[in-house]
Design the sequence.
């Protein structure tokens, strides 16, 4: 009987490749999930820092909120700023140019993007965008609200006691799923986002939305303003 020639047959090589593919796939799937989980955690931290920076801005500016950024330069977009005035931390004019847009990260001293490289979005309440800031009694006016993604249960009140600001990340799909306009649809996460309506979904990532949403309570802001002596004026 002849000895079998040394080496592997094509069938044996194919079997080895299939086994390696199965093993590699089994290892990569949990790794991908862990990496995505880390991105969500990083983005939640970024939104928490954004909220703290917005509060700090309001304390230092007499109960005003920063204007949204619409052109991607990281600074507030203001109505008719005086000639020759530019750069971060400058706020003039009676109103902001946009009702909602990107977070003015440079003005606030923050990182620009979420963990997927998209800008953080920002929707403040209009009552805090005037030169007068938050009035007395303190009332919101933009009807911002947050609902639970699965059940649709309201998680916040609406005006005059609604959130004073919403900050959010578009998540890995880079579109606004969490916001509901009149047609029930979201919008893009580009350089000049429009106001996507005032209702936002909040919940774990899923088929309906992979956005990360955080809201600033009126009462939380009031507590910080009163403690700092910035309100009432």
Sequence:
């Amino acid at each position: 009987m002849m000895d079998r020639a040394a080496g592997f047959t094509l069938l044996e090589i194919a079997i080895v490749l299939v086994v390696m593919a199965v093993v590699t796939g089994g290892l990569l799937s949990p790794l991908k999930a862990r990496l995505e989980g880390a991105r969500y955690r990083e983005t939640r931290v970024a939104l928490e820092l954004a909220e703290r920076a917005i509060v700090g801005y309001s304390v230092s500016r007499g109960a005003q909120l920063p204007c949204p950024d619409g052109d991607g330069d990281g600074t507030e977009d203001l109505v008719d700023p005086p000639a020759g005035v530019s750069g971060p931390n400058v706020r003039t004019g009676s109103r902001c140019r946009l009702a909602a847009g990107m977070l003015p990260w440079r003005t606030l001293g923050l990182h620009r993007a979420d963990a997927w490289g998209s800008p953080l979005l920002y929707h403040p309440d209009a009552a805090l965008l005037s030169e007068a800031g938050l009035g007395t009694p303190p009332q919101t006016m933009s009807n911002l609200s947050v609902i639970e993604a699965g059940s649709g249960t309201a998680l916040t009140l609406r005006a005059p006691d609604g959130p004073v600001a919403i900050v959010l990340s578009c998540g890995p799909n880079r579109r606004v799923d969490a916001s509901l306009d009149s047609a029930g649809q979201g919008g893009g996460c580009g350089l000049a986002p429009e106001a996507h309506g005032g209702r936002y979904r909040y919940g774990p990532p899923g088929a309906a939305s992979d956005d990360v949403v955080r809201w600033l309570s009126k009462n939380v802001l009031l507590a910080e303003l009163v403690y700092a002596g910035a309100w009432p004026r």
Q: What stands out?
A: The helical segments are 10-60, 105-108, 218-227. The beta strands are 101-102, 121-124, 145-148, 165-169, 175-176, 179-180, 187-188, 199-202, 212-216. The first helix runs from residue 10 to 60.
